[in-house]
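Hi L.,

You mentioned the student needs an example of a multi-chain input paired with its predicted structure. This one should do, with 688 residues in total across all chains.
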Amino acid sequence: MIDDLRRLPGASTLHADVCLIGAGAAGITIARELAASPLQICLVEGGGLDYEEASQALYAGENAGSPVDFEAGRLRFLGGSTNHWGGRCAPLDEIDFRRREWIPHSGWPIGRDELDPYYVRAREVAGFTAPWLADARTLGESLKISLPAVNSEWLRPFLWHYAPATQDAGVWNWGVAYRKVLRDARNIRTLLHANFAGFASNDDRSHVRGLTVKALGGASATVVARNYVLCCGGIENARLLLLAAEQGGGGFGSRHDRVGRYFMQHSRGSSGLIQSAELMTRTQEQFNILRGADGISVEVGLTLAPEQQERQRLLNCGAVLQYLGDPDSGVTAAQDIWRALKTGHWAPGMGEKLAQIGADLGAVTQSLAHRLSAGRSLALEGAAGVPSRSASIVLDIEQAPDPDSRILLGGQRDALGLRRVKADWRIGQLERRTAAVFTRLIGAEFSRLEIGRCRPEPWLEDDRLPLADALKETYHYIGTTRMADDPTQGVTDRDCAVHGMRNLFVAGSSVFPTAGQANPTLTIVALALRLADHLR
Amino acid sequence: MGTKPNHPRFLFRPRPPSCAGCGARRRAWLHGALYLFCYAAFPAAPLCVAVHSGRAGAQGAGWSGFGDFAALGGRAALARQGALYLDAHPLERDPAVLTRLLAPESGAPLRESLLAAIARDWRRHDVLAVDGWLLSRSEARICALAFLSAPA
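Structure written out for the whole complex:
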């Protein structure tokens, strides 16, 4: 059932076995998993079914470090931030879970093997029905391409899978894909416009006794449950624990002052240009977003080999190529004419395009031959398909955990009277060094393989150039309620329970101790499935 | 303070020639050939023709990356890179030193030998950024020699 707090009678008390706070990827995944169980689930969501400005405004915050766009990065309605998700999925690498002695505060209490079965289940939750391509070999078999033989001691090809689009949304979106499940499940009560207002706990703050939720108009209710799970994302999970500790005079993971610390994102930026004297036709059919006839959609890029991370004491890092189109190319003209023939929209100036093809016949023939030899299994679209002589290397850099990079409570208050969030996001020099070494390795390999020549960006080597100008946020908010077996080192334990609390859990990327280079959603879902099994 | 470890003396140890006259003739020949090669690098097109003549077309077969680079950079860029490299490596500001560092020790053909040296640099990650471009060390030295051998 999907309900609305604003329509409930005043001062209602709802009872459940599990109260899930936040209806994004983590919260909806747990609810869906428990839909067929005997447990009664209450899923509370601060927003409604669609975007509402007043509700979204509750996400505004203050910055003390590198800028975080709190309102652009998150969405506060059913489905949460999956409403603007790009659909990019990959598991974390095995090395991401290890304690890397060259990265302070690294190491998960669980290994990749613990998550492997949940990754398999997570793919189905994220909408994947087509085969999952594990590596470059299966990529070759499925999409009939072979990747250049890069030095595997330096670089590894890496595949990001794209979740399929739902019928009603551009990408897979939990709020759309699972709305029917939430509506029809007899044991799930979804309560919209129900914003966190406070926890009630026992005297020693080891047990949550109730959750107060409020709507912006003033309606409120109390949820009494056996277990509570915060599923509000990497920033809000920390904020709510900080608010609860402030309201309760301690507790809620605050004993060792770890809540909100180790705030990380993947830092994204262009680290260099690959330039070739000729069209990069072949490379564009290797390092790109490739779509197969059987529904597979993958992006092929590179990561820094684990051996190299260890040898050079670096972070993990991923790279994709963003091609810069060549508008004067005959291939571009041929694409325009092909599109015009297919759509029937014969725009003026097509005659000039025919002349352009004639002047560049060699490149057009070469491009056509490549496409035909690929058995039409590849469909390059948009900018990625425009013939290019140059491409930007775009990095997603893992961030080193830093206790001083943190989420705090700000001085301003939101419309519910709660202190707004304040972020002090810091990017360190290890990120710069990782980007510099990785880009040079890519440049050396691409030069050796005659793909093109590399012009690294100046910020890689010049410490005077601020990283905040070169690297932007990815909206992957990570690490603020990190998992650790030792309560002095983290907020949650290996089962995602808040240290010192018997019935309060956290789901989402805030529990990741380190970020890896892969996008976090698949791991968020895998951990949510694991937590759902724990709560059964 | 001793001599810097990257001093060319430590990088290249010429074998004593079997006879002084033959050694001098061989050095003169290498010097001349490298001058010609590097001079050719200035107008990019002839170098591309020369280098591309051995190109098989497939990745990895008959490395020809320097030709691609020359085509991208052009005459002025190569000269600038050579000058910048020499600014950072003043001990190599001598055509004879650069010739020694670049010259094949065996009697291998010059062009193939230089291209093999560049490919080896890439494999060993012996690279440096000059004027914004990532170059192999041998490429940087070719640019430097080209700069020194260019008409004023």
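You could point out the following to them. Residues 43-149 of chain B form one domain. Chain B touches chain A at residues 48, 59-60, 63-65, 67-69, 71-72, 119, 122-123, 125, 127, 129, 132-134, 136 (CB under 8 Å).

Best wishes,
N.
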